[in-house]
Write a structure and sequence with these properties.
Chain lengths: ~140, ~140
Amino acid sequence: MDKNELFNKLVSFTSSVHRVTNELTKNTKSNSISQVQYNILEFIAVSQPVTPSEINDCLSMSMSNTSRELSKLSEKKLIKKVNDSKDRRKQYIHLSKDGEVIMKEAFATIETRFLNRIQHASKEDLEEIERAIDTLQEKLFHP
Amino acid sequence: MDKNELFNKLVSFTSSVHRVTNELTKNTKSNSISQVQYNILEFIAVSQPVTPSEINDCLSMSMSNTSRELSKLSEKKLIKKVNDSKDRRKQYIHLSKDGEVIMKEAFATIETRFLNRIQHASKEDLEEIERAIDTLQEKLFHP
DNA sequence: CAATTTAGTTATCAAATGATAATTAAGAGG
DNA sequence: CCTCTTAATTATCATTTGATAACTAAATTG
């Protein structure tokens, strides 16, 4: 087992994942929000609840900009801020009802494109794909 | 086989891939270039050769900005532009020697972090990971 | 050949973003 | 209690970026 070769495979694999993710999520955002705001909502939707610190860390943005954009999303009633009951410096950000609606629509578009992409896959292929995802999730990406 | 469930797995999987990619590539860029310039060099390194159009498409940036940043990278002697011999409107961007050096260093850092991440995986685990990557690359991400 | 489209460059301006610093509030450690 | 650190907000300013338009050059279409 050549770990070096495995690393090269990982590089080209992650590059493919990013490319396909781009294709699937292109132009899915509603017109009422900016691209960055959509990225934030998507991150919240997948990782709910999140703190502002996690957002600027995971989306590689500055704390000042995160704070600004969260305020705008709050004004638009797309997110809710909840204080941590133990550590009262922390906030947990959730999607609001309206935020959930926007993200449900976006994910519906993404899912349609995904189903289109795997429409010719056989039952066996799909099962193999599912097992492969489980394997990588468990052994490589989750910890 | 529930395709809906498979989609949900894909969403959480791609989210993990992005998170781990972030961890592995954080602060790997040399101080002489901006983050965007690093992203461009990384994309070129993985997909060489690429056209300016592919760069603005895959990195979701405007054509004007792509052109500006490529000029800067050219001034810094990190890339080379080669005209397509058939379609002379097109350019192919390659890394220069200096660009290769910068990216080799960056990937060395990333590889060290990756090896650290899989240090406790058994031989069997690594083989399973490799097969899973091959499967997803072939059946889900490559086409 | 003429008209249209495509690839890319450049200049300009407005908007988004990052860096910084000052500030508030609260947890952690001595 | 005092100091240090962490989480977050806000204001200010410089830089980066996107949008637009004008432009060159070359391919495509008809």
